[in-house]
Amino acid sequence: MANRTPQELAAHLKDGLLSFPVTAFDADLLFDETAYREHLAWQAGYPVAGLFAAGGTGEGFSLTPEEIATVVRVAVEEVGSTVPVLAPAAGNTAQAVRNAHDAGTAGAEGLLVLPPYLTEADQLGLEAHVSAVCSATDLGVIVYNRANAIYSAETVARLADRHANFIGFKDGVGSIEHLTKVFAKNGDRLFYLGGLPTAETFALPLLQLGMSTYSSAMYNFVPEFALEFYRDVRAQDRAAVTDKLNRFVLPYIEIRDRVKGYGVSIVKGGLKAVGRDAGSVRPPLQDLTAQDLADLKALIDAHVLQSA
Ligand SMILES: O=C([O-])C(=O)C[C@H](O)[C@@H](O)C(=O)[O-]
Q1: Does residue 306 lie in a domain region?
Q2: pLDDT (average), residues 27-53
Q3: Residues lining ligand 1, CB < 6 A?
Q4: Which residue of 72, 135, 155, 289 sits 20 to 30 Å from the alpha carbon of 38, by its own alpha carbon?
Q5: Does residue 68 fall inside a structural domain?
Q6: Model confidence band, residue 308 (pLDDT cutoffs 50, 70, 90)
Q7: CATH number, residue 80
């Protein structure tokens, strides 16, 4: 636990698939620690490079700061000795700093700074926000470029100059021009990870832009398939990647796009479909309808489990 320096953590994370586990809830939508521990133990049984607790797929945005602290602590206890656990730094600056302190206390190895809520934000404000988190911790810090938190190449460079523990840039926007600028300016000073919804969809082209890894939400329920996909991407095996896109990923995103917020709900649906129920999603998300779940199960049964 927390035995890697930020630089060692970056070197470790950049060459393996990254897991973003769901947070298990019981029938009252309360944190289900037993189910969560079981899920994490299963996830950590495969060779993933890092496990990001209470991230986007982990519904970090629907957890209280106390719940985030608990979820991260449980993740470190359960799997921290085999895989580095990273925690979210979410919400307003004070809350993100508090998350950072809690993560350090729990023994997490790194932080993912999620976009602040609601308000628009520009470069100086975003820089101050991330600086506050970096200054509050010795852990390695990754920013998530998405929604209202769009970091220019120059902002990223200033943060990298000022904070040795700023180690990574995660992208959830997919602007080729922006990514090219960020990579051209910052190069190997950082590592880069893809974080667009269903990141597999973009993994091969983004590799060329310097994104050597990505957050796999589908790893939650089809880990072998997700790892095989990652190996194909890193081998730049276009035929194998295209086959898997056609067989599973593209039909999967057709179901995902039926309802807003399904990007997370479909992952909990996938767990139900493979017999590893982690409960429902919290509002403002909604669960898959019975029909959508049946379609997902049929897709998994036909194209993933049989070929695994
Ligand atoms: O915080 C998160 O869960 C994400 O980064 C989003 C997903 O993991 C996304 O990359 C995906 O859906 O594969």
Answers
A1: no
A2: 98
A3: 20, 55-57, 195, 197-199, 215-217, 263
A4: 289
A5: yes
A6: very low
A7: 3.20.20.70
User: How do residues 154-206 score in pLDDT, each as one tens digit?
Assistant: 999 999 999 999 999 999 999 999 999 999 999 999 999 999 999 999 999 99
**ipTM confidence score:** 0.92
Residues serving a catalytic function are 144, 170
Nearest-CA residue for atom 13 of ligand 1: 198
What percent of the chain shows pLDDT beyond 90?
A: 96
Cβ atoms of 109 and 140 within 8 Å: the answer is yes
Q: How far is the CA of 264 from the centre of ligand 1 (A)?
A: 8
Closest C-alpha to 224, from 306, 167, 153, 161: 306
Residue nearest to atom 4 of ligand 1 (CA): 56
Per-residue pLDDT tens over the stretch 114-142: 999 889 999 999 999 999 999 999 999 99
The total of structural domains in the chain comes to 1
CA 308 to ligand 1 center in whole angstroms:
23
The closest-lying atom of ligand 1 relative to the alpha carbon of residue 144 is 5
Instruction: Report, as an integer, the average pLDDT of 216-241.
Output: 98
**Does some domain include residue 173?**
yes
pLDDT tens, position by position, 43-77? 999 999 999 999 999 999 999 999 999 999 999 99
**Residue 34 in marked binding region:** no
| Cα 253 to ligand 1 centroid, rounded to whole Å | 13
Residue 228 belongs to domain spanning:
6-236
